[in-house]
Design brief:
The chain has about 1400 residues and is of the alpha/beta class. Helices cover about 55% and strands about 10% of the residues. Helix 46 packs across helix 49 (about 1235-1255). The relative contact order is 0.04.
C-alpha cells in the first residue's frame, strides 16, 4: 500500500515536469520550423546557379593541357576566342598588355597576349578555375565582365566552332557571373539563417536539459513501478498455481474417468492391431493384388483367386489373415456406410469395387449395364460433377474440370476411347515452373490435384483393347443378386410395412452419423495423445475431448442398445420378406440376358424396379402372409411377362417363359441344373450299349440319347433296360400323333417331372420338345405364360410421356404406320403426325422435326433408325434432353427400327418397346392384302374376270411364300424378307398389264413377279427355281378354270365368280372367312413332316438360346445340390474332363510322307492327288482338335496361357457346340460337339481304309472336305483315259439298289454313297423318289453310280428325272461363291421320279427335296 502511494505521488510530479518539457519542446520546434523555411529559400535560389556552375565544371573537367595549349597556339583567334581570353583575364584580375594601335595612334589593350602569357601558359589553369573562390568575386570584376557576358559573340555555341577549349572557359566565366548574381541575393538570407539556427540550438539545449531532469524522475518512477509489478506478479503466480492445481485435479479425474471407459475397447483394438500388424505383409500383398488384377472379375472368381493366393502365402510362410476381407483390410467403415447411403449397392462386390476405386492410382472404368455405379458416382459427388460423353463436344468442359479440380464422369462409352484422352488416363503430367501441367490435344493446361475422372459403359460384356486395359482400372459393377435383393427388400417392406422401413432408414442414417462422430473423436484423442508433450494434465483440449468422448460414447452406447433392439425388430420383419425379394430380384438376370438373344431386348434396372413397385400396387389384398407373398409374386411375374412380351418377337416369347420358369424353379430349389443343361445341350454323350433288335423305327441318334438319359439318374435309373424291355410300347409312343397325351409303358410318365418328360421327348420325338417345354411352363407358372396378350397400342401410349419414346422393333416386311394412324385418329392427332424416314442427310431434318414437334405437340415418327447408324449418337443426346415439363404434353416421339446393335441402349432401356411382325397365317395375309385395296381400284381393270381370279392367286402366292419361311430350309434355303411393297407393285403391274395388252401376258407376268419384284431378293439358285415353279401354279391359264385348285386337298382355290367379273371386295372377305384358321404343310406343297421339322427347329432354337442365357444359374442352390448328389463339378472340371475324353478318342496322326510314297501323283490316277489334298486337311484338323483339347487341360492346370481360342473350346465342351477355332480348319458341320468328333473319326477311318486297302470300290460321298475335288478327279481320270476334253464331259447318274455291294471298280466313274434325302425318300422297290414316311425326317439315299459321259452320249431322259441339289449341311444356305452357287451347294443329282401325277419335277421342287451329305443329329 505504501509503495503504491509513493509511486502515485512520484507519478504526479513526473507528469507536471513532463508538461513543462513538452511546452519548451513545442517552442523549440516552432523556431526550428522557421529556420528550415529560410534554409529552403536559400537552397531554392542556389539551385538556379548551381546547374550552370556544375555544367561549367563538367566542361572544364573534359579539358586537357593540350586543349589549352591548342588555344594558346592560335595565330589568329576568332572574336569569340578573343572575348573569352579577355573575360578570363578579368576574372583572374590579369591586366592587359599595352600594344600600339593598328593606326599607330596611341596604344590599345592586348588581352590576347596577356592571356597567352599569364593564363594559358599556366599548366594549373584548369585547377585554378575549378578552385576559384566563387563566393567572394569582387564587384569590380563582375562589372568589367558584364559587357562581355551580354555580347552575342560571347555565346558558348558560337565559340565552340572555333575551339572546344575556349567554349569550356566561356561556360565557366558565364557560370561565375550567374553564381555571383545569385550569391548576392542569397547572402542576406544566409545571415538570417545563421541567426535563426543559433536560436534553435539554444532552445534545443534548454529542452535537452529539461528532458534530462524528466528522465531522472521517470527512471525513479519506473523503478518503483517495476517493484510494484514484481510484487503483483508474485501474487498472481500464487493464485494461478492454486487454480492450476485445482484444474489438474479435476482433469485427472476426467482423464481417469474418460480413459477408464476406453480401456476395454482400446485393449481389444490393441490386440487386433497387433495381430493385424503381424499379418500386414500378406494382407497388403493380397489387397494390392485385388486392386491391380481382380476389379474386372465376378465375386466367385475373386474368392477363388484370393483362396489360391492365401494358400500360396502359407507355402511361402508369409503371414496373412486366414480369412481375407478387403473391407476389413483397407476399408474405412465410415466411408463405406456413406457410400451405401449414396446409393452404392449394399453387396460385397460393389463395396469392394468402391474400395478399389478409392485406393487405385488409375482412373476407374466401370462396367455398369444397370447404371448402379453411375448413380452412385453422381450422388457421391453432387452438383460439382461434370457429366460428359464421347459423342458430344466434351474437350472444353474436360479442360475446365482438370484446371479447376472438378470431378468428371465420362459415361456410356463403347469399346474405344479417343486418343486425346491418353495423357489424362496415363496422368502424363509435367512441371512447368512451379505448376503441374498436362497436354490435352493442342492445349497445355494446369493439372489440379483435386481432379477426378470416372468412366462408365453400359456394355455388359465389353472387349477393351490392351491399351485401354493397362491405362485404367476396370471394375465389374454388374448387378449382383445380393445387392438387388437388398434393394427389392427395401421397396417391398416400404410398401407393405412403411413404418418399419422408415425406422430402418433412420436407423442406418443415425447409426452412420453416430459412428462417424465416434470415429472422429477417437481420431482426435489419438492425435492429441500422440502430439502431447510435457505433463498430460496441462493439455486442456485433450482432457475436454476425452470428457466429451465419454459423454458421447455413453450416449452412443445407449443409442446402439436401442438401435440393436430396433434393428432386431426390423430384421425380423425384413426376414419375412427376404425370400420374396430374393425370388423377384433373381428374375432381373433373365431380363438382363435377353440382349444376348436380340440387341434390341434391353431392360434397365430402374425400369425393373418401377415394374416391381407397380406389381405391389396391383396385387390383390390377402389376409394371410403366405397368401400375400404368393399374390405379390404372381402379380410381379405376370406384369413382368406382359411388359416384356410386348417388346419381344413371337419366336422369343416361349423361350422367355421357359427361362422365367427355370429361374423360379431354381429359387424354389426345384430345378435340377444337370437335367436342364442336358436338355439345352442336346443330351451329349455316346451310346454305351448296343441298340436292341427289332428297333428299326429308332434312329441311332435317338438310341444314343436314351443311353445318355440313364446317366442323369433319378427317374432314369436303369432306363436302358426298362426301355429295351418295353420296346413295342415305346414305339407306340413314338408313332402317336401327340406322344405326351398317350400312356407310357409302366406308367413311366407319372414317375417323371415335366422337365424329365421334355428330356424323354427330345430323345424320342424331338418335335414334341416344344410342347413338353410348354408343359414345364404350364405346370410351374400357369397357362397365362403361354398365351401372351396381344399388343395394346393404347395402353402403351398411356404409359408414355413426351420424354419417353415409343419404339417399334420391326420384323422383316412389317410396317406399323397403319396402327399408329389408327391410334392417332382416335386421339384426334392424325393431322399432327410428322413421319421422317431416316437415311443419308436426314439427320438435320429429324432434329428440327423433334424440336418443332416438342413445341407444337406433334407426333414425330422417325422411321428405319437402323439405316442411319451414324445418327444414333445424336438421337441419343436428343432423347436424353427431352424434359416433359418443358414440352407440349401432346408431343410423342415414335421410333421404328429393325434389330441393330447400333441402336442406343439408353433409348431402348428408357423407351416403350413394341414389336410388329407380318400377320401370321395364310388367312391373315389374304385379309391384309385385300385391305390394301379400295373398291374403286379393285373395279378399275378392263378384264375384271381374269384380274380378280389372278389377283386372288397373287395374294395367295404372297401369303404362301411368307409362310414357307416357317419351315426352314425345306421352305426356303435363305430367309428372304418378302414384304408388302413387293405385293403392292405386283398387283399394280397385274392391273396395268391386263389393261394394256389384248390378252393375258402370262410369260411377262411370271417373269416380273418371280424374277423381278419378288425374285430380285432371291439369291440362291434352288430358291430361284422354287419361286418360279410356285408362281406357275397361280399365274397360269388354269386359274381361270372354276375347278382349278391350289393344293391337293382342294381346300384352296380362287373363288368362283361370274365371267363378267362382278364381285365386290366383300365377296372376297366372306370367301377368306370360310378358309381354315390353321394351315397344314400340304397347303404349301410340303410333306406333313415339314411341320415336325418346323417344331424341331423351334425347339433347337429355344434350347440354343436358353443355353446361352444360363450363366446366371447355379449361383443359388438348386435341387441337385443335396448330400446324395455329392459335390457338383465346377465348370473347369467339366470341360477338362470332356476335352481329355475327346483327346483320348481322337486317332493318331497319319504319316503323310508314307502315303505320298505309296500313292504318288500319277497322270492317269487323279484320285491320288485328291487323297493327298484331303489327308492334308484332315491332318491339319486333327492337330487342331487334339492340340486344343490337350492345351485346355494344361491351361486348367496353369501350365499354358488360357487364350481366347482355348476359351472357345472350353465353352464348346460345356454347351456341346463346335468351337469356332475348330470350324476355322474344319469341313462344314451343324452337329453337336461330341457327335462331330464321332463323325470326324468315321471320316478319318474311311481315309485310313483308303490308304491301307487302295482306292475303294465304294466312295463315301460325305467324307471329303471338298467333294468337288473328288468329282473333278473322277472326271479327269475318264478324260485322260479316253482322251476327251474335260469340258465336253457331263454326268449321267444311276441309282443302284440299297443292298448293292461292289466288288470291283466300275468301267468308268465311281460308285458313291452316304447321302441323306430331306423332304422325301428313295423308294428302293420302285427305284424312284417317293413321299417320306410319317415322322421320318431323313431317309438314307441308296448308292449311285457317278458315270461320266461325252455330251453326245447323254442317256438321261430329263422329263423323268428330278435334279436334286446336294448340300453339305441341312442349313443349305451359304455364301454366294464365284460359281454362282451357294458355298454349301455341291452339285445336282438326277434321280428318277414316278411320273405319276402329282409326282413330277415341279412337285418335288415345291416340296423342297434335296440331298444332304450329313445330318444335324
Amino acid at each position: 500500500g505504501e509503495m503504491r502511494e509513493m509511486v502515485e505521488a512520484q507519478q504526479v510530479g513526473a507528469i507536471e515536469k513532463k508538461a513543462v518539457v513538452e511546452e519548451e519542446e513545442a517552442k523549440a520546434n516552432i523556431q526550428k520550423s522557421a529556420a528550415a523555411e529560410i534554409k529552403a529559400d536559400c537552397m531554392k535560389d542556389l539551385a538556379l546557379a548551381l546547374p550552370a556552375f556544375e555544367a561549367a565544371v563538367d566542361a572544364l573537367s573534359k579539358l586537357t593541357k593540350a586543349d589549352v595549349g591548342e588555344v594558346r597556339g592560335m595565330k589568329t583567334p576568332s572574336v569569340g576566342v578573343m572575348l573569352t581570353a579577355q573575360a578570363t583575364c578579368i576574372m583572374f584580375e590579369v591586366k592587359p598588355y599595352k600594344v600600339a594601335a593598328p593606326d599607330g595612334k596611341g596604344k590599345i589593350d592586348d588581352w590576347w597576349g596577356a592571356a597567352k602569357s599569364e593564363l594559358l601558359a599556366d599548366p594549373k589553369l584548369i585547377d585554378r578555375m575549378k578552385e576559384f573562390d566563387k563566393d567572394n568575386i569582387p564587384p569590380a570584376v563582375i562589372d568589367k565582365v558584364m559587357p562581355l557576358y551580354v555580347s552575342e559573340e560571347f555565346e558558348p555555341e558560337k565559340i565552340k566552332k572555333a575551339s572546344t577549349a575556349a567554349m569550356g572557359i566561356c561556360k565557366w566565366v558565364r557560370a561565375m557571373v550567374v553564381y555571383d548574381k545569385v550569391a548576392k541575393e542569397v547572402g542576406p538570407k544566409k545571415l538570417k539563417l545563421a541567426k535563426s539556427e543559433a536560436e534553435v540550438a539554444e532552445a534545443e539545449a534548454t529542452v535537452e536539459a529539461k528532458q534530462a531532469e524528466l528522465k531522472e524522475v521517470m527512471d525513479m518512477v519506473a523503478g518503483l513501478e517495476a517493484q510494484l509489478s514484481e510484487a503483483n506478479e508474485k501474487a498472481k503466480a500464487l493464485q494461478k498455481q492454486q487454480k492450476d492445481c485445482a484444474a489438474k485435479l479435476a482433469r485427472a479425474e476426467k482423464l481417469i474417468d474418460g480413459l477408464g471407459g476406453e480401456q476395454a475397447s482400446w485393449s481389444q483394438k490393441s490386440q487386433r492391431l497387433g495381430k493385424d500388424y503381424l499379418n500386414l505383409t500378406g494382407d497388403i500383398m493380397i489387397a494390392s493384388g485385388i486392386i491391380a488384377y481382380l476389379g474386372i472379375f465376378t465375386t466367385s472368381y475373386r474368392t477363388e483367386a484370393i483362396t489360391k493366393w492365401l494358400e500360396r502365402l502359407v507355402v511361402l510362410q508369409v503371414p496373412a489373415s486366414k480369412e481375407f476381407s478387403l473391407q476389413a483390410c483397407i476399408g474405412d467403415a465410415v466411408k463405406m456406410r456413406q457410400w451405401v447411403i449414396d446409393c452404392l449397392p449394399n453387396d460385397s462386390l460393389s463395396i469392394d469395387n468402391a474400395i478399389i476405386l478409392d485406393n487405385s492410382r488409375r482412373w476407374p472404368l466401370m462396367i455398369d449395364p444397370q447404371g448402379q455405379a453411375n448413380k452412385w458416382v453422381k450422388k457421391m459427388n453432387g452438383d460439382s460433377l461434370k457429366v460428359l460423353r464421347l459423342n458430344m463436344n466434351y474437350v472444353r468442359e474436360l479442360e475446365n474440370a482438370i484446371q479447376f479440380g472438378n470431378p468428371v464422369i465420362l459415361e456410356n462409352i463403347e469399346e474405344t476411347l479417343d486418343a486425346i484422352l491418353d495423357p489424362v488416363l496415363q496422368k502424363a503430367t509435367f512441371k512447368q515452373g512451379t505448376l503441374v501441367m498436362v497436354r490435352l490435344g493442342d492445349s497445355t493446361i494446369e493439372w489440379s490435384k483435386d481432379f477426378r475422372l470416372y468412366i462408365t459403359t453400359k456394355l455388359p460384356n465389353p472387349h477393351f483393347p490392351p491399351e485401354i486395359c493397362v491405362a485404367v482400372g476396370i471394375l465389374n459393377f454388374m448387378a449382383t443378386l445380393d445387392g438387388l435383393q437388398d434393394q427389392m427388400l427395401g421397396i417391398c417392406v416400404a410398401a407393405e410395412e412403411p413404418e418399419t422401413e422408415q425406422k430402418r432408414i433412420n436407423l442406418v442414417l443415425d447409426s452412420a452419423k453416430a459412428k462417424a462422430q465416434l470415429k472422429e473423436l477417437e481420431d482426435k484423442i489419438l492425435a492429441l495423445l500422440s502430439s502431447s508433450t510435457g505433463n498430460i494434465l496441462d493439455d486442456e483440449e485433450l482432457i475436454e475431448t476425452l470428457s466429451n468422448s465419454k459423454i458421447m460414447g455413453t450416449k452412443i452406447e445407449e443409442q446402439v442398445k436401442q438401435q440393436e433392439i430396433t434393428g432386431q425388430q426390423i430384421a425380423e420383419v425384413r426376414q419375412i420378406y427376404k425370400y420374396h425379394a430374393l425370388r423377384c430380384a433373381a428374375l432381373y438376370f433373365i431380363l438382363g440376358d435377353l440382349c444376348l438373344v436380340d440387341p434390341m431386348y434391353q431392360f434397365s434396372l430402374d425400369w425393373f424396379i418401377i415394374q416391381f413397385n407397380r406389381s405391389i400396387e396391383m396385387a390383390e389384398a390377402k389376409d394371410a402372409k403366405d397368401e400375400r407373398f404368393a399374390e405379390l409374386f404372381r402379380s410381379f411375374v405376370a406384369l413382368l411377362f406382359i411388359m416384356v412380351c410386348r417388346g419381344l418377337f413371337e419366336k422369343d416369347k416361349l423361350l422367355y417363359s421357359v427361362m422365367l420358369t427355370f429361374k423360379c424353379q431354381e429359387m424354389e430349389k426345384e430345378l435340377k441344373l444337370n437335367e436342364v443343361m442336358a436338355l439345352l445341350t442336346g443330351l451329349p454323350g455316346v451310346a454305351k450299349e448296343e441298340k436292341p433288335a427289332n428297333s428299326a423305327w429308332l434312329t441311332d441318334v435317338s438310341w444314343k440319347r436314351v443311353n445318355v438319359l440313364q446317366t442323369l439318374g433319378d427317374a432314369f435309373d436303369g432306363f436302358i433296360g426298362e426301355f429295351a424291355a418295353q420296346l413295342s410300347g415305346w414305339q407306340a409312343v413314338f408313332d402317336a400323333e401327340d406322344p405326351l397325351e398317350v400312356e407310357w409303358p409302366n406308367n413311366f410318365k407319372l414317375k417323371c417331372s415335366p422337365i424329365q418328360q421334355a428330356l424323354l421327348m427330345y430323345a424320342l420325338r424331338a418335335d414334341a420338345t416344344v410342347k413338353a417345354l410348354m408343359n414345364v411352363v404350364d405346370t410351374k407358372l400357369g397357362r397365362f405364360f403361354l398365351e401372351p396378350p396381344p399388343l395394346n397400342l393404347e395402353i402403351c401410349y398411356a404409359d408414355s410421356n413426351p420424354a419417353i419414346p415409343l419404339i417399334y422393333i420391326l420384323a422383316s416386311g412389317s410396317d406399323p404406320m397403319n396402327d399408329i394412324q389408327k391410334l392417332a385418329e382416335g386421339l384426334d392427332m392424325l393431322a399432327k403426325i410428322n413421319p421422317i424416314s431416316l437415311g443419308q442427310g436426314q439427320g438435320p431434318k429429324a432434329i428440327a422435326g423433334v424440336k418443332e414437334g416438342g413445341r407444337s405437340g406433334k407426333w414425330v415418327l422417325l422411321q428405319n433408325c437402323h439405316l442411319a447408324p451414324s445418327f444414333m449418337a445424336t438421337l441419343e443426346n436428343l432423347v436424353e434432353k427431352l424434359v416433359p415439363d418443358e414440352m407440349n404434353p401432346d408431343f410423342r416421339l415414335w421410333l421404328t427400327a429393325c434389330p441393330s446393335p447400333a441402336f442406343p441402349i439408353s433409348i431402348l432401356q428408357m423407351g416403350i418397346k413394341m414389336t410388329i411382325e407380318p400377320p401370321k397365317g395364310l388367312k391373315q395375309a389374304l385379309v391384309r392384302a385385300y385391305m390394301s385395296c379400295d373398291e374403286e381400284w379393285f373395279e378399275s381393270c378392263d378384264k375384271p374376270y381374269e384380274f380378280k381370279k389372278m389377283l386372288f392367286g397373287l395374294f395367295f402366292f404372297h401369303g404362301l411364300i411368307l409362310e414357307r419361311r416357317g419351315f426352314g430350309p425345306v421352305g426356303w434355303n435363305v430367309m428372304y424378307g418378302f414384304s408388302e411393297p413387293d405385293r403392292e407393285i405386283s398387283r399394280q403391274q397385274l392391273r396395268n398389264f391386263l389393261n394394256e395388252f389384248a390378252g393375258v401376258p402370262w410369260e411377262a407376268l411370271n417373269y416380273m413377279v418371280a424374277q423381278a419384284n419378288y425374285g430380285g431378293r432371291v439369291t440362291d439358285n434352288q430358291d430361284v427355281r422354287c419361286i418360279i415353279t410356285i408362281l406357275e401354279d397361280f399365274y397360269t391359264k388354269s386359274i381361270l378354270d372354276p375347278d382349278y385348285k391350289f393344293s391337293m386337298s382342294g381346300i384352296y382355290f380362287s373363288p368362283d365368280i361370274d365371267k363378267d367379273g362382278k364381285a365386290p371386295l366383300s365377296f372376297y372377305y366372306d370367301a377368306i372367312k370360310s378358309l381354315p384358321i390353321s394351315t397344314t404343310p400340304e397347303t404349301f406343297w410340303l410333306h406333313s413332316n415339314a411341320s415336325l421339322t418346323a417344331l424341331i427347329n423351334e425347339g433347337t432354337y429355344i434350347a440354343k438360346v436358353c443355353s446361352s442365357m444360363m450363366a446366371s444359374f447355379g449361383a443359388s442352390s438348386s435341387a441337385d445340390d443335396d448330400e446324395d448328389a455329392g459335390k457338383a463339378k465346377t465348370p473347369e472340371e467339366r470341360y477338362n474332363e470332356i476335352s481329355q475324353d475327346i483327346a483320348a478318342r481322337l486317332p493318331d496322326m497319319a504319316d503323310q510322307g508314307a502315303v505320298l510314297r505309296t500313292y504318288p501323283v500319277k497322270y492317269h490316277q487323279c484320285l491320288n492327288t485328291v487323297l493327298h489334298m484331303e489327308l492334308g486337311k484332315f491332318c491339319r484338323l486333327l492337330r487342331k482338335l487334339k492340340g486344343t483339347c490337350l492345351d485346355l487341360g494344361k491351361a486348367v492346370k496353369g501350365l499354358v496361357v488360357f487364350s481366347p481360342e482355348l476359351e472357345e473350346v472350353a465353352h464348346g465342351c460345356l454347351y456341346n457346340k463346335i468351337p469356332a477355332p475348330w470350324m476355322g480348319t474344319s469341313y462344314p458341320s451343324l452337329k453337336p460337339m461330341l457327335s462331330y468328333v464321332e463323325d470326324f473319326n468315321l471320316r478319318w477311318k474311311f481315309m485310313m481304309t483308303w490308304v491301307k486297302n487302295d482306292i475303294p470300290f465304294m466312295f463315301w460321298f460325305s467324307a471329303y472336305f471338298f467333294q468337288q475335288a473328288f468329282l473333278t478327279g473322277v472326271l479327269q481320270n475318264y478324260a485322260r483315259k479316253d482322251k476327251i476334253a474335260i469340258d465336253r464331259i457331263i454326268w449321267n447318274f444311276e441309282v443302284v439298289k440299297a443292298d448293292f455291294v461292289p466288288t470291283e471298280h466300275p468301267e468308268r466313274g465311281a460308285y458313291s454313297d452316304g447321302l441323306f434325302m430331306d423332304g422325301a425318300r428313295w423308294d428302293d422297290d420302285a427305284m424312284c423318289v417317293a413321299d417320306s414316311h410319317p415322322k421320318v425326317l431323313w431317309s438314307t439315299m441308296s448308292a449311285f453310280w457317278l458315270r461320266p459321259v461325252d455330251t453326245s452320249e447323254d442317256k438321261h431322259n430329263y422329263d423323268k428325272l428330278y435334279m436334286a441339289p446336294i448340300y453339305k449341311t441341312s442349313e443349305r444356305k451359304g455364301v454366294l461363291s464365284t460359281s454362282g452357287h451357294s458355298s454349301n451347294f455341291i452339285m445336282y443329282l438326277a434321280i428318277p421320279h414316278s411320273c405319276q401325277p402329282p409326282h413330277c419335277e415341279t412337285f418335288w421342287t415345291k416340296r423342297g427335296v434335296a440331298l444332304i451329305s450329313q445330318t444335324d443329329d
